[in-house]
Amino acid sequence: MADFYALIRPLLFTLDAETAHGLTIRALKSGLLPPAPADDPALAVELWGLRFPNPVGLAPGFDKNAEVPDAILRLGFGFAEIGTVTPRPQAGNPRPRLFRLVEDRAVINRMGFNNEGLEAARVRLTRRRDRPGIVGGNVGANKDSDDRIADYAAGIRGMLGLAGYITINVSSPNTPGLRALQSRDALAELVGRCVEARGADRTPLLLKVAPDLTEQDVEDIAAVVLASRIDGLIVSNTTIDRPATLRSPLAGETGGLSGAPLFVPATAMLRRFRLALGPAVPLIGVGGIGSGAEAYAKIRAGASLVQLYSALVYGGPGLVRRIKAELLDLLHRDGFASVRDAVGIDTPLTR
User: Fold this and answer.
1) Distance between CA atoms of 133 and 220, rounded to whole angstroms?
2) Element of type H or E holding 80
């Protein structure tokens, strides 16, 4: 599979990134890719009453409309997260809006929550309701919404019974004003209404945050999470920062930067939240993962699970198997019997 992708990647890279992505979705729909072998039990993670066969998930943005979650799982991912889904369909920002920064192994996107809407996602998730595998649902607000918090509540109600967990995405940089919902008072109101929308249902509710946070932001978000019934934190989304190390001529494009340059700042943010929250709130580490060593570093920094997306652009569908093999070797090298044993080992807690 890796050799085949190496052959076709030059052809895919002659297409604009969004067109190539559409072809990838169509290829996954074909069902022609062989399923990945079963995972070593040492990679399994028990969390929120769910059993993840391995800790490596596909981040949202790839399968916005829940078109291919089962195909994604067959590639060897331990879980897949669809979305971001908004209550009403929306076109997103004008194209071009997705850019490969090849020299930096990075991606910039300004998609703007383009998706077919909550009902379309619900129809597809309903069709797979009894199939195995954990599929999370990532929900957001429509750009022109009069009540964005109501949009999140609607998304949560719509995902109940269909998603293994639900993510509240307030950290995309591509919807104007959305990140303001991470401020303490706004976040407290948002989280309160989202928990209320979940009601007595036990579906885990997660919050996804940005990497571009101040120390005060971290303290405020941690205080809200600890005072609420939020089940976990995803750290982090794309960044609006542009590191001086970027070499691509596309580095100045507007949007969120993901991929290799995000690894260091996103992992540092993960450690900050691990220290602020302690072990009680599980973390999912996202940002710049392209190898088993980088997945392992996130886990040692405090992540119980990890997600990736941008690295697939450069590594292809065989990447997830390589990451899992490398991760397993590293766990064995350091004497850990399971992923859980390594979580947070590099971020000692004083609380």
Assistant:
1) 34
2) strand 79-85
**Residue 308, Cβ density class (10 Å: 0-12 exposed, 13-18 middle, ≥19 buried):** buried
The alpha carbons of the chain give a radius of gyration, in whole angstroms, of 19
Q: How many whole angstroms separate alpha carbon 315 and alpha carbon 105?
A: 10
Cα 27 to chain centroid distance, Å, stands at 22
Asked if 169 and 140 touch (Cβ cutoff 8 Å), the reply is yes
- The pLDDT tens digits of the residues spanning 282-337 come to 999 999 999 999 999 999 999 999 999 999 999 999 999 999 999 999 999 999 99
The rounded distance, in Å, linking the Cα atoms of 23 and 246 is: 28
Cβ 1 vs Cβ 316: under 8 Å: yes
256-259/283-286 β-pairing: unpaired
Return the pLDDT at 350: 62
Q: Give catalytic status of residue 291 as yes or no.
A: no
Owner of token pair 């052959």: 7
Dihedral sign (CA 96, 97, 98, 100)? positive
Domains annotated for the chain, with CATH where assigned, are 2-341 (3.20.20.70)
Q: Is 136 helix (H, G, I), strand (E, B) or coil?
A: strand
Q: Angle 209-113-55 (CA atoms, 0-180°, nearest 5)? A: 50
**2-23: burial string, b at 16+ Cβ within 10 Å, e else:** eeebeeeeeebeeeebeebbee
The letter for the amino acid at 264 is V
Round to whole Å and give the CA distance between 139 and 135: 13
Q: Where are the beta strands (DSSP E) in 104-204?
A: 106-109, 134-139, 166-169
Q: Using omega within 30 degrees of 0 as the cis cutoff, is the peptide bond preceding 173 cis?
A: no
What is the DSSP code (8-state) at residue 288? S
Given a contact cutoff of 8 angstroms between Cβ atoms, the answer to whether 256 and 246 are in contact is no
Q: How many residues does the chain have?
A: 351
Whether the predicted pLDDT of 16 surpasses 70 = yes
Active-site residue, selected from the candidate residues 172, 236, 258, 310: 172
- Cβ-based neighbours of 163, under 8 Å, separated by 6 or more: 82, 125, 135, 136, 137, 203
